[in-house]
Design brief:
six-stranded mixed β-sheet; 17% strand; alpha/beta; globular; 195 residues
Length: 195
């Protein structure tokens, strides 16, 4: 049974960014027997072509979620997962080759941490104006040179983002229970073209 489950939720993905995301997973240093990859097709207009997307990922499979929205897609991915560490990867994230092995090490060495993430460096299709840099955190950009840990809500520098979010199974399971008890939570996230 894998220790780590990578969940990629996607809706009408752009082929090239998704290809780069999947390529970065193929290059992970964590042995493939220790992790699985679930690509959740969230009601794409053209359903994803299953295994054709996942060559070289013997531990990967495509899961369909017909209810549109990031939260329903993440919940579906969680329910299909078997890992004790859930890693949510956006469909345009490129993971460093050691991302999963480092995440697994943190998971094992720091059992008191429920959720964590890593440094997120942007790669833009076009160079943005310099004045936009103070707002990049709104795009989940978190460039950090050292570890930052915290348990105080609202401390953005220590809070993990959805991109590359690592969550212990029991924490993710609790969140799924909250969503199922209060369906409004499922509406408070990205759905199709709506943020």
């Amino acid at each position: 049974m894998p220790t780590v489950t990578v969940i990629i939720c996607t809706h009408n993905p752009r082929p090239e960014p998704l290809r780069r995301t999947l390529d970065s997973l193929r290059k992970q240093t964590l042995p493939s027997a220790e992790w699985e990859c679930l690509l959740v097709d969230n009601a794409s207009a053209k359903p994803l072509a299953g295994d054709a997307l996942l060559p070289g990922l013997s531990n990967g499979k495509v899961v369909l979620e017909s209810k549109l929205g990031l939260t329903p897609a993440r919940v579906r991915g969680f329910k299909e997962s078997s890992g004790q560490l859930i890693v949510y990867v956006d469909d345009d994230n490129v993971l460093a080759p050691d991302f999963l092995s480092e995440a697994k090490a943190i998971f094992e060495q720091r059992p008191y941490i429920g959720a964590f993430g890593g440094s997120i460096t942007p790669v833009f299709e076009e160079t943005p104006p310099e004045w936009t840099k103070p707002y990049w955190y709104l795009l989940a950009v978190r460039e950090t040179a050292e570890d930052r840990w915290g348990n105080t809500p609202g401390h953005a520098e220590a809070e993990p983002c959805g991109a590359g979010l690592c969550v212990r199974r029991e924490v993710a399971g609790h969140y799924v229970e909250l969503v199922e008890k209060d369906p409004i939570r499922a509406l408070l996230d990205r759905r199709g073209d709506s943020l």
